[in-house]
C-alpha cells in the first residue's frame, strides 16, 4: 500500500544525506510564491513524491503522485492548499504559496522504480517584513520583530514621560502649596486612545524628596514619578 511504499522510500534519506552537496539552491522572499522543480527522469516511474528533510534523521512527506493517472495525495499537515504538486512529460513541480521562513530547508524530489532516485533542492526563504521593503540595502531578516517590539516599548515610555512632564503634579502639601493647574495636550491624549484599539489606563503617583541646602541656596525638590501601565 501507499504507507508501506513511503516508509520504504524514506528509509533511504539517511544514506542520501551524504550527497546533499550536489543540490542547487532556490532563494525567495517571505510571502512570495515559489515553484520547486526537478527533471522527470523516468516516464514509466509508478510513484513520484516530494518530501522535506526536517532533521538529519527525520523526513516529512509532502505529497505523492501516482503516475498512471497523475493523481496526487497530500501527506498529513500539507492539505491546506499552500502546497501543490504537478507534472508534465519533462518536469515535476512543487508550488509553495506565501512561503514562510520556516519553509527553508532541503526538499527531495523522488522517483521510485526498482530503487529510489532523488533530486535535491535547497530552499532559502529570506524574511522581509513590510516596513523594510523599500530598504533593499539593509538586511532586516531575523531581527525585525525584535526591533519592532523594542521601538514600541520605547515610544510608549516616551509618551508616558511627556505626559508626566506636562502635568507637573505638585505634591508639596506640607508647604501649603496648591497643586498647579495643568493641561494635557489633546494630541497626546489621542495617542493613548488609539493604541491598538485597546483601553489603556495610566495611573501616576508622585512623591517628593526634599534636599535642603544652606540658606544661600534654593531648596531643591526632586520629584519621583511612578507610572503604572495596565491593559484591560
Automatic annotation (TrEMBL):
Gene Ontology CC: plasma membrane
SMART domains named in the record: IG
Localization per Swiss-Prot or TrEMBL: Cell membrane
Source organism, top-level taxon: Eukaryota
Keyword flag Transcription regulation: no
Domain Immunoglobulin: 23-126
InterPro entries reported for this sequence: Ig-like_dom_sf, Ig-like_fold, Ig_sub, Ig_V-set, TCR_complex_component
Keywords linked to the UniProt accession: Cell membrane, Disulfide bond, Glycoprotein, Immunity, Membrane, Signal, Transmembrane, Transmembrane helix
Positions of transmembrane segments: 105-123, 143-164
BP GO terms, sorted: immune system process; response to bacterium
Protein name: Immunoglobulin domain-containing protein
Organism, as annotated: Amphilophus citrinellus
